[in-house]
Amino acid sequence: MSELFDAVDALVASRATLPPPAERKRLRAAHGLTIDEVAAALKVRRATVSGWEAGKTEPRPPERDAYARLLKQLAELYPTPEEPAATVPATFTGTRAPAEAPTLSPGPAPEAAAMTADENTQTPAPVAAAPTAASRPAPATRPSATSRRPGAKKAAPAGTPTSGTDPRFENGPLAVIDVDEDGQVLAYCTGGLVLHVPAKSIPALVDWTLKEARLGQSKLSGPGKDADPLLVLTEAALERYGLPVQLSDEERLAGRLPEGHKVAKQLARAEWKLTKRGFGPWARIYRPAQGSERACIQLCIPSWDALDTRHWKGAAQLPPAELARLLGTYAARVITPRGSTAVTGLELMTAFHPATRASEPDADGRRHSEHNPGGLGKDPVDCAPCEAPDGHPLLTDLPRFHQRTPAEVLMEEAYDWARPLTDDECMCSNLVGIDVNMAFAAGANGLVVGLGAPTHVKTPVFDPKLPGSWLVDLSHVDLSRVKSGKDWVQLDGDLLPSPFTPKGNRPAGPAWYATPTVAYAVELGYDVAPLEAYVRYENGRYLDAWYGRLRDAYLATMADLGVGADLPPQEFLAAMDGYRQRDPEMAIVVSAIKATVKGGIGKLRERPRGEGWKPGQPWRALSRPTWRPDIRAAVISRTRINMHRKILKHAAFTGQYPVAILSDCAVYAVDGTSPLDFLPYREGKPLPGGWKLGVNPGLVKHEGTQTVLWGEGVREQHGADLNLARYIKDGNITHTDGGE
Is the whole-model pTM more than 0.85? Predict the structure, then answer.
């Protein structure tokens, strides 16, 4: 009998007693521990600890004994207070309970309240809510890779902004769908929230998202529409829902699954539709709208290369919680991703300026769809022939292999210019590069662009306020003598790039230019006499709201990385040193924001992308109202002119000239290693109208420093035309410069 008693005693001891779920959370928070730290110590996943604290699951040996030991020690340190603060009940039905207010202390703070939902309601059941951005522990408190179980994924501290207070989207704009080690499907949302997902198939997942998940994002403008929920599917989720983890070579080239795939058939049977791009890395699943009601979700599949590594770096490899934080931050500050950063940049433009709006009620009280003033309309417009890229249907009458001259084609592109160093510059010790922050966004700020179709004008009078393309001869502009403000200044024109051509060559005769370029010739003190023009009388500041949104997103994220907007020059340079390592995920958001700017501008003149296209035939992008090469040209023109204006101001004041320029980077020969060794600051104030250090769009940062000997050496090895600005950052010449 004693053996039986011993067995019973051992069985009881094997099931360590645990306090209730709410008390587990209280004890952990009282000691300033995060869910991440507890999970790392017990060598389990973050979601597992969240489930224990929410009462969704119970720990099993051997983790149970260790967890009980932890809680017992914490209970001795933090006994239950006589009058405990009100806690969120273990079960929750109805509206979502508010999370605790964030604390601003530097250390870890208590988690937001954990919530569950009655299984008989349609309210989503969060597994756990994590800290807000203000309460997120410092990076130093996060578990190290060596302290985790081999193969376990690191869970991210939360801190992602949510989409606002709209109750329809209280769980944020997106969720990362994953499957835990127990086979449970979980949705990692912004702010650290984790929802249980009951769906067994992709059609069921779509239904759950639209009916229960409360995901989405409020519209950015009055006539606009709300952003559809975004679901990001991990590899485990793909396997669970019958989708391939990787696309085959044939599927990758097609950019989609075949139409006969079983998941596509499941969607069709459930009366869900796919857009023309099919079931690919960015799949859109919808039903035709019923009145104002939309039924549509967006899928993002990182393992199918949805997140381009050029812009999203290693985001696709992040654990679900960290990926939700990263994408959620981007969505809250920019917009919910709709595809590539280029596609999203273009979508952001139309989110602020939809093609149509609702009219005022008519006599019967009905509203109708009408043109939205300030937008580009719902129908595409033809560009001017000079604005059309090679192969455009407008150019079908040109002879085959005809090379258009500057007098036939508008060539507004970014700088790619370099020159040999002078003897005095060769005596300097270093080459220092400075880079303009968000240069193309700054070029779009306040820019008046055409909204409608162009009007052809013969022998026009130039109007700097009228957007368009102008055929004019600017070869008479002499950079050796130009106006700077009201005064004429003498410069060494041979050391300056022309502001009128991307390669910096002086124009040889009439050529097509966008309005900002011609206006700059007038600003420099020279008369202009256009021969003809394509102007746009319907115009406006179409990109202002777009710029403001991206500027604010960039500044907020840089502030997260420790780079404030009003730092003195020396402090700014120090803050920029290694800023990406302070929070690698937020550094990825910065890269994505920058790519959204450049990609969105580039998308305005999207070229053919295969699909059997032949020169002279229309391609898909031409059917978009946002295919506007004239707007792209105006932004690039203004960006290049902004840069040249600062170069002139600096040269006139200091006698220093750039030796190379590539897009938004300029390189100077300097006796020193820092931009402060050649930028003329006086009592902390920069040269008016010249270069200024700072994080704001249009200001500059330090791009890199290399020795003059390095510059001369690589040019001798790779050719005198090598653009040193391309390699000034790290000095590595990865290929022979082709000027592309």
Answer: no
